[in-house]
Amino acid sequence: MRSKLLNADPPITYAVVLDTGDEVSGELSKFVRDQEVEAASITAIGAFSRAVLGYFQWETKKYKKIAVEEQVEVLSLIGDVAVAAEGPTLHLHAVLGKFDGSVVGGHLIEAYVRPTLEVILVQPPSYLRKRKDPETGLALLDIA
Fold first, then answer.
1. pLDDT of residue 77
2. Which CATH class is domain 2-125?
């Protein structure tokens, strides 16, 4: 993983490039901890060798895992960073394009880069917090 600070004044902006074999959630989590990012929006494009997406099942309050065991294009990866009880937390969604033009999407649980993932991370001048929602069990943005 490589990164470059693009703008030091709010909104603070980084370009982060992940390389073949990097696991996305782990690498980006490490980056936000190392840079002490408490809030940010994330966008990215690139490709994965494989991934695991999730679909939130309302009845069980758990993610149904969707394995993607093939090379895919990252057509869209968006998300945020917000502070939760355990520190900065990533919440990422991805739309992945398959070789035949079909797509699959969902909550990004795990993904391995091949050959690259180009990420833009933008920190706003103030930050957001997440709190665990008792109804869903999810950490949701608290904008109160």
1. 98
2. alpha beta
